[in-house]
Amino acid sequence: MRFIRFVDSHGTEQNGAMLADGEAEIFTGDWNTGFKPTGSQAVITKLLAPIVPTTILAIGLNYRRHAEETKARIPEYPILFVKTPNTVQGP
Questions:
Q1: pTM
Q2: Which of 42, 55, 53, 33 is nearest to 14 (CA)?
Q3: Which of 4, 38, 50, 68 is the most exposed place for a label (fewest CB within 10 A)?
């Protein structure tokens, strides 16, 4: 089963499992509570990123070996940066 997040023919974002015919079985729920099949199907008009994007705080060059691998100067403190929701891409 290939779990997907998609937009259906009504413009609604849905979670589901991709079927062979270009449709998806719709699931209810979320990553925290779990997903359950509804028994309904929908036409996939657009595939989305598998999760709803959020802002991600990341730490770069946070270990010496990584800095050495990239031939970067070893920083005195780890480098902080963010990835905003618009940087997440779909499949």
A1: 0.67
A2: 42
A3: 68
